[in-house]
Write a structure and sequence with these properties.
CATH architecture: 2-Layer Sandwich
Structural class: alpha+beta
Radius of gyration: 12 Å
CATH superfamily: RelE-like
Mean pLDDT: 94
CATH class: Alpha Beta
Number of domains: 1
Amino acid sequence: MVLKFSPAAEAALEALLANSAKATLLDRLNDLLDVLEENPDDSRVRRRRFVDPPLWCFTVGDADDTYLVLWELDAAGDPVVVHLGSASFS
């Protein structure tokens, strides 16, 4: 399997990579993205299910922030991260 990213999700990941204050969050995120790439059926990356559009969701966080990852399987069966960003809705 190949883990893919929408342009917006890729930009959000690049912003995290550039922010040294988010090192813990990035480490935790990378661990779960590895799981997603290796086994998208793993319950750690299938915490929530949305029906319309059909997406899976998981969160990852550090002491300061929580990020939401929305993903789907493409026609080839590869996971695609369609959204990566802060889970804060305030």
